[in-house]
Write the structure tokens for this entry.
Amino acid sequence: MPILKLKPACKDYLWGGDRLRTDFGVESDLHPLAEAWVLSCHPDGPSTIVGGPYDGKTLADYIQTEGKAVLGDDCAPFAEFPVLTKLIDAKNNLSIQVHPSDEYALEHEHQYGKTEMWYIVDCEPGAFLYYGFQHEITEEEFERRIQDNTLTEVLNAAPVHKGDVFFIPSGTLHAICKGIVIAEIQQSSNVTYRVYDYGRVGADGKPRALHIQQALAVTKLTPPEKLDFGKHLGQCKYFTVDLHKGDFAENADSRSFVSLLFVDGEGTVAVNDEKMQVKKGESLFIPACTGEILVTGTLTTLVTRV
């Protein structure tokens, strides 16, 4: 069974919509349906296996049973599964937030920090997101603008279009804004420091917590860096992401597992003697050392490996 189809863990954050269910086929009773964690071993939302001898088991269960060899040699330095991939439907604005580095998060949160990247799957006309600052500011100005609700005046508001990519190193202030569907590939971490939340309240009727002191400690008060990943959409020590449209071949060699997330279309995935029909919104995990993967059809595929 070289092809593992994954069922996502889902989240009903208040800013979510319904497009993951209606447009991407995600099955969930949650309303709103904000996030689908389509590749996850994180305890806050593990994805589970559909079909075969591991049906209903988590991906983490599979790895523990089969051994870390299924992850590949490049995962050996990591104590935990290094990647978490999500589909995110932002019907409304997410909070303005920042994620810490590994060093800060391990010391203060006892888990890893978070570098991530976004692929814009779809968006409404005129949609934008916040991505770093327009220009460098001081810590004093940053704190003052948080307190007097003028922070957005100095943020870099980046227009978005379908197919755009944003790489967000830890420490980069950011926010997905309304009308955007995103595929997010990130470190396996759930540490988020909210800086500004538009005065919203949670399900308990109270304003959602802010983490201003932590944000002051970890935020880079500069415009975003211009990064060049060559042929890749994004790359860091935790993940490498590529994009394919239509037919392609990939190889799950000894170095890494291969994750396939289909953000559009439909088609077939063949590995050795096994074939599986797939469509938009579905996610597959192919263990390391499986060999050649052939993908055919009208699919748009995000391929993630370490």
The first strand starts at residue 4 and ends at 7. Residues 142 and 239 are 31 Å apart (CA to CA).
